[in-house]
Write a structure and sequence with these properties.
By secondary structure, the protein is α+β, with helices and mostly antiparallel strands. It folds into two domains: 4-71; 104-435, Porin (Beta Barrel). The protein contains seven helices and 17 strands. A 16-stranded antiparallel β-barrel has the order 1-2-3-4-5-6-7-8-9-10-11-12-14-15-16-17.
């Protein structure tokens, strides 16, 4: 059965046909001087009639097709997505990786080559406000009981848009701290390896499981707050040196059957309201006892401040970070005699300058220099005379090198590192990184 709209269109056709007949009759009774005008009117009316007849034929065909199709079952109709919803669903793949070669200056036997990271990620958009983000990473090429590699889920969370510029996420995600932790792909930093401050002090890549909310203002201010899992101090290895290399990296849980008796909170602010400028700060604090015997009221707090400025082709960066572990004295008293006791404080900072130059072949060359100063055990809680470990001396590292971008997302790197405290660690590095 035709719709009311179709009936109206049929009536318009009939009226035009009638008008066409009247004009034709009028043309026969009109003097020859007005024939051209009558002919023009006839042509215009004929065109309109033809157009309306085509529309009417299309409407009839649509209704005949709809009447011939069987009705869908109620269950299928309820589950089928609307056209607007189906159009938003999409699966996207991304990834990054790095290969490197490292040659210590005074130790030829220590030269190594490595597939440092191979990462594949996927995101899926359920609708225009909800999506899933994930990353799967393989480190050092091969992972087995006899090999040094690891396979790990680096991210796996659901994100939901709450407002025009507010987002919530739940799952395993990166903590918004420092400059590298959320932007750790090899095309985003200078040098073959990530800097020491944002690996030894801030344990990049650092992820926790929890719930977080992010907001962006029109003035360029981003804020992040959240609740997450934290560290487990009972994982501290007093007989190994890992704790002196990365105090927090040695006790993070990565949401692998993570103990969650003590949770943590974090917050971050970043301002990018001025062209070429970014500065901000963040803090993370939470219990680390996790209800384990011999551990009580142990809280880990880490905070940092950073700034990055891009005047013209220059890229200038600085960052300072400091960490504290509370109530370590009772634990360290049980560990006296072991080589690695738990530090009470640790810190680090760096300053970096790079210059981006565009080469004739559209490659980009970025020479850079970076100075770092850090200490993974700058202080210990007092255990009494003769028992308290001496703080470590600060380590200073000067790095100079260059990044060469040979295609969008592909970079070749080289650098040379000079260590002040342990000059036996001086080395030359060469690497390639990619991101897609």
């Amino acid at each position: 059965m035709l719709s009311l709209n179709s009936v109206f269109r049929m009536r318009r056709v009939l009226w035009l046909i009638a008008g066409l007949a009247l004009v034709s009759a009028f043309a026969q009774a009109t003097p020859a001087a007005t024939a051209d005008e009558v002919e023009a009117k006839l042509n215009a009316l004929a065109a309109q009639v033809s157009e309306l007849q085509s529309e009417l034929a299309a409407l009839k065909a649509q209704q005949q097709t709809a009447a011939a199709m069987p009705a869908a079952p109620a269950a299928q109709t309820a589950s089928a997505p609307a056209a607007s919803e189906a159009s938003t669903k999409q699966l996207e793949w991304f990834g990054y990786g790095e290969l490197n070669y490292s040659r210590p200056s005074g130790d030829n036997a220590g030269t190594s080559a490595d597939v440092g990271r191979f990462v594949l990620g996927a995101s899926y958009r359920f609708d225009d406000k909800t999506r899933f983000i994930s990353e799967l990473e393989v480190e050092h090429s091969v992972a087995s009981a006899e090999d040094p590699g690891e396979v790990e889920v680096e991210q796996a969370y659901i994100e939901r848009q709450l407002g025009s510029s507010t987002y919530a996420k739940m799952g395993l995600f990166l903590i918004p701290m420092g400059l590298l932790n959320e932007n750790h792909e090899p095309t985003r930093y200078y040098g073959v390896f990530r800097n020491f401050v944002e690996t030894a002090i801030i344990p990049t890549t650092w992820r926790e499981g929890g719930f977080a909310v992010r907001g962006d203002t029109s003035g360029g201010l981003r804020w992040d707050v959240g609740i997450s899992t934290g560290f487990d101090l009972s994982k501290w290895g007093a007989t190994a040196s890992d704790g002196l290399q990365e105090p927090l990296g040695s006790i993070h849980q990565e949401l692998a059957l993570a103990r969650a008796g003590d949770l943590a909170g974090f917050g971050a602010l970043n301002y990018t309201g001025l062209p070429g400028l970014r500065f901000g700060a963040s803090v993370f604090s939470g219990g680390a006892s996790q209800g384990q015997p011999g551990f009580d009221n142990n809280r880990i707090t880490l905070w940092e401040g950073h700034a990055r400025w891009n005047p013209g082709n220059w890229d200038l960066t600085t960052l300072y970070a400091r960490g504290h572990i509370s109530n370590t004295r009772p634990i360290n008293l049980t560990l006296v005699g072991n080589p690695t006791l738990i530090p009470e404080s640790f810190f680090g900072w760096y300053a970096e300058a790079a210059y981006r130059a565009t080469l004739p072949n559209m490659w980009t060359l970025s020479p850079f220099a970076r100075y770092e100063r850090f200490n993974t055990a700058s202080g210990y809680a007092s255990l009494g005379a003769g028992l308290t470990p001496d703080p470590l001396d600060d380590e200073s590292v000067f790095t100079a090198g260059a990044n060469l971008e040979i295609a969008p997302g592909v970079v070749v790197k080289l650098d040379y590192l000079r260590f002040k405290r342990d000059d036996g660690n001086d080395r030359f590095d060469l690497g390639v990184g990619y991101q897609f």
